Batch of 2 targets.
Target 1
Amino acid sequence: MRVGLTHSLHRLIQQKPDEVACIFEDRSISWGQLGDRVSRLAGALQQVGVRQGDRVGILALNSDRYLECMLAVWWAGACLNPVNIRWSASEIVYSLDDCETQILVVGDNVLQSAETLHEIRKKSSSLKTVVQIGGTALDSGVLSYEDIITAAQPVEDARREGGELAGVFYTGGTTGFPKGVMLSHDNLLSNALGYLLDLPYGEDEVILAAAPIFHQAGMCIVLRALVRGCCCVVIETFDPTAIMQAVERCKATFTLLVPTMVQRLVDHPDITSHDMRSLQKVLYGASPISAGLLERAFVALPNVEFFQGYGMTETGGPYTVLPPYFHTQEGRRAGRLRSAGKAAWGMEIMVVDVDSQPVATGVLGEVVARGPGIMQGYWGRPQETAAVLRDGWMYSGDVGYLDERGYLYIVDRTKDMIVSGGENVYSTEVENVVSKHPAVESCAVIGIPSEKWGEAVHAVIVCKAGQTLDERELREFCKESIAGYKCPASVEFRDALPMSGAAKVLKHVLRESYWKGRERRIG
Amino acid sequence: MRVGLTHSLHRLIQQKPDEVACIFEDRSISWGQLGDRVSRLAGALQQVGVRQGDRVGILALNSDRYLECMLAVWWAGACLNPVNIRWSASEIVYSLDDCETQILVVGDNVLQSAETLHEIRKKSSSLKTVVQIGGTALDSGVLSYEDIITAAQPVEDARREGGELAGVFYTGGTTGFPKGVMLSHDNLLSNALGYLLDLPYGEDEVILAAAPIFHQAGMCIVLRALVRGCCCVVIETFDPTAIMQAVERCKATFTLLVPTMVQRLVDHPDITSHDMRSLQKVLYGASPISAGLLERAFVALPNVEFFQGYGMTETGGPYTVLPPYFHTQEGRRAGRLRSAGKAAWGMEIMVVDVDSQPVATGVLGEVVARGPGIMQGYWGRPQETAAVLRDGWMYSGDVGYLDERGYLYIVDRTKDMIVSGGENVYSTEVENVVSKHPAVESCAVIGIPSEKWGEAVHAVIVCKAGQTLDERELREFCKESIAGYKCPASVEFRDALPMSGAAKVLKHVLRESYWKGRERRIG
């Protein structure tokens, strides 16, 4: 489309100059003020050497400055590189150097010490300029964000648009080295516009940006608010108390939560002492919500309509939606609460077999998607790009099926699927059974090499404190629920499972020792 | 965007195969059936010679077949030429030949006689094939729509998208020969997506397509319904009784009306005997609604929220919206009911002086707009295109101003503005005063050549039956309300004003005799 991500700001400067664009802690900024600061920060970025299409990194916790800085990068004609704050210095350096990011904007309270910044600057071959938001300078030669805004003249919007690159989002998933997902203005705008059809924001909606903005899902929240001209309330970190306080204080009407955050919120002892009545809609994603948790959420947040979404960075954001109806008492009889929802406007979903042929309704296969949200590719990685973008379809690596109304059910990751004696075993199905055993605290099921079966089902189990579990007893327990070939052929007990920053079990770490020196065929 | 107008149909075939897509008279068709017919009609079109990008004309009253045929043209990879049914045979031939339309689909009850079709076929140099919907063949060699669908095999969607041409819409406005406005898939989709933010359709909305679909505004209604997956109730012609019956029978929730149709509907004696309670939203456009009519509409349609829109074919559809609030008792105090609304998402509005420089808030000038909805140009007319598309802005030819919140007020057409003695006189302002005189039934004010003033204000007046009016008396009457230089310097009485099919006064016809042989500088 002949339009870019800054367009909405121009409209809002004209239509809502005095209305609040963003609230962060005790600061609030109007659309007019935001427009002024963005156009001057864009000028400052150009002065320090940012040219059209250059990448500008942002390493920051959520704040109003994050929103402002994103917009200024686009206004200057540059491309965003939102750096994951949980990464180590070397991971950060990797993501900066991989896409040749020369300028990094560093936020408040994000780096553990001045040494970390010093290390990043020393190790990075591409980084030339660091701009620091707030606080005293962490390192010599670091520019002050406020100083450069004050000194700069406003510049004209570069008006990048359509297929031009808006951001490179480094994502590692749970395996391998981070890859830079290239998303264009069209990718991000089509996602926002399509999703707003199923999850409409009223003009007076107050959007709580609680999830990290450097994650694509968190950024989508902010972009939808911008497209619709809604006020964004931003909190620094994803914390239940901060969410409750922000909802109460700013009368937030919408937010995005992951199920664990729904749980931490609705089970929080203080929830009854906060006025949460303004909150009307919650989008949750990453994993389905349990019926029990939903019941508690209904009680704790009686005004809230729940929406489920599913997507990945490579799809430009969430692209399925499970509407509120299926969360209600009546709608739950339709049995779609386990579903991730149906395709939002702009995206088409297909489930295919190993030969990329579509399978019938209800049959498992790899989930593939196409549409205007699909990424341009991985930065500098044509082979990895070609492996997932085939004939216009994005291969998600997720195993699932579609029902007769196009609702998508995610069963497993293809790489976590175990092929044993020619049968497909879905690790999540086995994990669901194993985790029901009263002695099990948590578990992960993986495929390990087997001469006889190709792969064998292997369970890694963390027992509850003071409890033990016999391998044979577990197999008997499992056989009551699932076929023999799905039951763990071997079991391993550990004190803890290796987890990612996003609280996902790192199954590749568990598999590593078993597969060393061998090639595991997946997909 | 990497998406086209057929995308929505793919989604709906997957998600709502059995749900009703369209109702016309006693027929209804599901999304699954529509998908089947569209893919076969597309095959049939390709068989009779339609290639990628070719124009296919449709000359038909509104029906479910219109919707189906539009989609089939796009599915086949072709481009639509929706022909104005009010045109004469030679105007139709002009619009077919100008963009080399080889195939024309002709609907039921649209041509006055078989001779008309025969004449079109004889005169047109481009037309090769005629496909006729329903009835007995009007002419020899005419193909039957149903026969070719039945005989054809379904084909794969050509999946045209983005900047590729979706339609050539011939529009004459009130002057000159029709020009073919080229609109791409992006133009039409961005308009639909942007407008749905301010005028959201629920998934269960029932859309009444009452305005002619061959007009761009009428087509936008259908395209928004398609994007959102809403059922469309289609009526053949724009008629108050048909509207009332369709609302009652099909529980329509939304429709588009022009103010005269609002008037004919709400003042209709039968309105109280029809159950209109399902109707929740009405979009009206083309001209502002009078306060008196609105009051009557509130009484007649108490459940309805009114939205006003403004746009032109060249902008891909309506691009401003005046939300319901400003129509309410409370909102009307804000005084924006005379406004055409503010820019919808995707579009930016500016008001400029004769040097194309933006003017201040409240100052009159020419309204210009830019955004992804703006046409690709006029078919085969680079000069006319360059005259209205300048530096990315579309020059509307409308005179207006913006208020401090970006609400647009349309005052006149630039070409109807009179420049007299260096002063700008807006014809509509003078007409408003003249029409208040008790003897005046209708009037039009134009500029005529004047040696002294450049142009002089001239009024053409139709008096009420049995009444007369003295020229001097009229001038005195006008002077009570407006400055002397704005008052008509000369007056002419007629029995009727020349009107266009869209009920607009043809001022260029009135001006013609005065300006013959002279050049009138406008804009």
Note: The radius of gyration of chain A is 24 Å.
Target 2
Amino acid sequence: MEKNTTPLILISNDDGITAPGLRVLVEEMSKIGEVIVVAPDKPQSAMGHAITVTAPLRLKQNFIFGSILAYECSGTPADCVKLALDKVCPRRPDIMVSGINHGPNYSINVIYSGTMSAAVEAAVDGVQAIGFSLCDYSAEANFEATRPFIKQITETILANPLPYGTLLNVNFPKTESIKGIRICRQASARYAENFDERKDPSGNTYYWMTGKFINMEEDDNDTDLWAVNNNYVSVVPTKFDLTSNSFIQHLKHLL
Amino acid sequence: MEKNTTPLILISNDDGITAPGLRVLVEEMSKIGEVIVVAPDKPQSAMGHAITVTAPLRLKQNFIFGSILAYECSGTPADCVKLALDKVCPRRPDIMVSGINHGPNYSINVIYSGTMSAAVEAAVDGVQAIGFSLCDYSAEANFEATRPFIKQITETILANPLPYGTLLNVNFPKTESIKGIRICRQASARYAENFDERKDPSGNTYYWMTGKFINMEEDDNDTDLWAVNNNYVSVVPTKFDLTSNSFIQHLKHLL
């Protein structure tokens, strides 16, 4: 951020422009800088890092946040950020924040998360980026306890920019008494698939995705999953270079 | 893989069940083991790691590969793998292969790639996984030069399983004379957005996504981008733990 200027803050999410979590983020960011919102016009949860290459995109101004410049976009969260950076923002944002997601994006959820894909998209473009998520799927979730932490984390990153290739994945526990912040690693966990098989009125089979979340590191206290389960805010420094560097030498002996 | 048994090989892709690249992969895998195909019923490029949680999924048997068991699925590549593992495969596959994608998935493309998301999904579930891509978007792309490498890499991994958390991202150059295999890291690159702005017949604006690919590491010869640009097969050991471990200590001093 340039000194003595108001930071420009781009906001998006994956629950859509009307989501209560987005409104909380807009309110907190308005205390820090000039805000621009470009968010999906409908919920886009679990969109991963999808982008729209085979259809055109639409942008429409939305006055839901009063005097704050806001657009709804017909695309995915990653589309929103791409369009915002190219067509909406008058200059490069000092930071991009995503969320607050209704539901956790800790552990393996990060790879499915539209919230995080928006933040990753900004980070790939060289913009400071943070994804915020609350471990409560409810539309009536209570975000109040998250407010001071959101402000603190965002101001810290504005003052101490992350190196290229790194962004933050922040998850809040579902509690009114948060104990503090923990810097963590992504927990190893997965979903055990268990599709619910049904018949439609014509007798044809269809499937609903369900899955049991399996924590494979229950005993470790340095993971994001442990942090939120113990009422801490988890902050994971996250990257989009997926190379397993430690395995390169071994592989050179095999292939 | 258990000794003295035919390996069970699950195949998916993101270009859809009729894509020529999928057929080449089915042919090569049939030389190695028993094959099951579960692929999208329509193209799903750039779907990232999207999964379908708000709509039901359909599976329909397809006889496009003759006696090989094949299903088309209404969902994303990641959906295909989840459904295949839960509802189609008679036992755990020994390996899952994805592709051959029509188009590159090197460098930053990995985060947008439906091909790689299918492979990642299998790997999260603990199944050995490889994504194969050819650096040629054409539907008439020539895959012949890739065949011996696909067989070699797959057999090597079946004989030397990857540790949990690691899969392979394999990209083939667009050439008939491939020089060999290079074990690489993911190149640092990004797309410079440049949306094409148009007016529809009603006078409303819409946008087509375009973007110029920018290689930020042109001088380095240990990246996947360098390898394919120099007619080598790039093999990147890839992981889905996105933690930037090297940044954890620094962040602990800031927050």
Note: Helices of chain A lie at 20-30, 77-88, 114-124, 147-159, 224-229, 248-254.
